Amino acid sequence: MPKSLPVELPERLCLGNLPTPLQPLVRISERYSLPFDGPRIWVKRDDLTEFGMSGNKLRKLEFVAAEALSRGCDTLITCGGAQSNHCRTTALVGARLGLGVHLILRGEPDTAVDGNLLLDHLAGANVSIYSPSEYAANLEQIFAYWHEEYLAHGHHSLCIPTGASDGLGIWGYLAASQELIEDYSSQGFEPEHIVCATGSGGTQAGLTLGCQLLQVKTGVTGYAVCDSAAYFQSKVREDISHWSRLTGIDLDLSSLKVGVNANYIGPGYGVADPEVYQTIIEVASLEGILLDPVYTGKAFHGLLQQLRNGIYQGCSNVVFVHTGGQFSLFPYRKNFSFQQD
Ligand SMILES: *Cc1c(COP(=O)(O)O)cnc(C)c1O
């Protein structure tokens, strides 16, 4: 009997195709890990949560959208980069539930309608694009402005923070931790490590808290795609302590182990070194799995480097949580070059 979370889950909408598969990466393991006494690498296919709404944000939005409906909201307002996977997922979730969606996006006014931004428009979301400087300086006021604007037209909106990462959104990966335990039990192993890309910290926070509450030996490491290790150390704790306040469940945050690797961010958010693109090509051609240049490609590239460095030597199994993001491959197409006759 697999262990279960000692807390009751709040209301949740079933939007994803769960559980997602947990699959071995046979050829990647054979090339990068097993010959060097490294672990078998597994992938939790959260890129398959639901076609257009695919990726990690859907797990969080199952709880956030349930909250919006229970508060009687008819509109979702959220924010992110012009190629935000979270915004695209919110746009499609809104369409699926018959809710209005307003997206506050960071980008240049002439941002190409491609990748996720194309899907935002297809889903009928209202899109406002702000320059990076205005976005950085005024995000809170921009949220307040749109919230008031909708209210003035008789609409009640729920404002969802970046990446739906807060004490409510982290339920998504708390519940996923339970799902992983069931996966391990049917596959017959318990991994020493789970790794994922970390951007707004909520996925990592949910997995970290999940492993603590489930009392498993598995360590969780977020491979940062932006900011710094110190930022994620504090953001993960902030989301978990928000969860603790919302649920009234006391936690000893000082005993919480937060694992961050910030060595593979490269030039910055949304900008990757050529090696990351090489890794994307390698994983697609070796395993038939699509990574993206903003999140999963960077994180997986970091994981491969760490395997090479022997960091996971002696471990038997490591699980990479594939958090999605494939639609952003298209707007980044210029960074790949291929020969064809
Ligand atoms: C948002 C996102 C992440 C990071 O998840 P956070 O919970 O924001 O840290 C990782 N991968 C993809 C594809 C994402 O869209």
From TrEMBL:
Keyword Lyase recorded: yes
Cofactor field: pyridoxal 5'-phosphate
EC number: 4.4.1.-
GO terms, molecular function: lyase activity
Protein's name according to its UniProt entry: D-cysteine desulfhydrase family protein
Organism (species): Microbulbifer epialgicus
Record family assignment: Belongs to the ACC deaminase/D-cysteine desulfhydrase family.
Keyword check for Lyase: yes
UniProt superkingdom: Bacteria
Membrane-spanning parts: none
Alphabetical UniProt keywords: Lyase, Pyridoxal phosphate
Domain Tryptophan synthase beta chain-like PALP, first and last residues per copy: 16-324
PANTHER family: 1-AMINOCYCLOPROPANE-1-CARBOXYLATE DEAMINASE-RELATED
Lineage summary: Bacteria, Pseudomonadati, Pseudomonadota, Gammaproteobacteria, Cellvibrionales
